[in-house]
Amino acid sequence: MKSYRTAQSIHMVGRAWQIRIMLRQMQKEWSPDTPLQHILQSLESTRRNH
Fold this sequence. Notes:
Blueprint: E1 2-5, E2 10-13, H1 16-29, H2 36-49
Antiparallel strand pairs: 1-2
């Protein structure tokens, strides 16, 4: 499973069950109601700090 994150998108490549697991992990990190734009902004700010 591979995932690529940019400022505007998240690309996940893998089998369906692998992508479902990744999405569930994201839901645990952020609430299921969190908009994707908010998640991307959070990821981008985290990336800049490292």
